Amino acid sequence: MAGLGHLPPTIRSRSITIRMRRRAEHETVRPLRERDAKTRLHPLRDRLAALAPRLIPFAQALEPSLPPGIVDRDADVWEPLFVVAELAGGPWPERAWQAALHFQAEGRTELPSHGNQLLADIRAVFAMTTADRLPTHQLLAQLHRLDGG
């Protein structure tokens, strides 16, 4: 799944977010066209499809260890990738470990969505008053007085 801006929290918590950046002016890339993909990647796809049934029993038996802090839903998302890395062997288990640590750390520094920030700011406004409700114009005025408003 791809998107611009922030993903809804219900999707983000079930995903591994990979931030993309625009290519710098000095960087060059060779485009991958569909016709090239069919020629170059379909044979690999076919070999993997033939190999998959033989690997399923091994994959089901694996219980890879995950980096500290990757628990609950994050573990549910990462575990299949760690299984694939274990099956691939070589440098892949370590690369998966490093990737998980990187993306987990990046996710913790991500800014809250606009909706979550608005809810936090509304909570802050109500924390500064004894009122249990405010007219919209007063709430907006208080929100504008907050830092960054």
Describe the structure.
- By secondary structure, the protein is mainly alpha-helical.
- The chain is 60% helix and 0% strand.
- The protein is built from six helices and no strands.
- It has helices spanning 9-12, 34-61, 72-88, 92-108, 114-127, 136-145.
- Helix 3 (72-88) runs antiparallel to helix 4 (92-108).
- The longest helix is centred in the first third of the chain and has 28 residues, at 34-61.
- It is elongated.
- 4% of the residues are buried.
- The mean pLDDT is 86.
Quick rundown:
This protein has 149 residues and is mostly helical. The protein has six helices and no strands.
Number of helices: 6
Largest sheet: none
Give me the oligomer status.
single chain
Unreliable spans? none
Tell me roughly what share of residues is in helical segments.
55-70%
- Globally, the shape reads elongated
Order of helices and strands: HHHHHH
Structural class: mainly alpha
Number of strands: 0
Termini distance? Answer: 32 Å
Average of pLDDT: 86
Strand proportion, as a percent range, falls in under 5%
Gyration radius, in Å: 23 Å
Spell out the blueprint of helices and strands.
Elements lengths: L8 H4 L21 H28 L10 H17 L3 H17 L5 H14 L8 H10 L4
Helix pairs in contact: 3-4
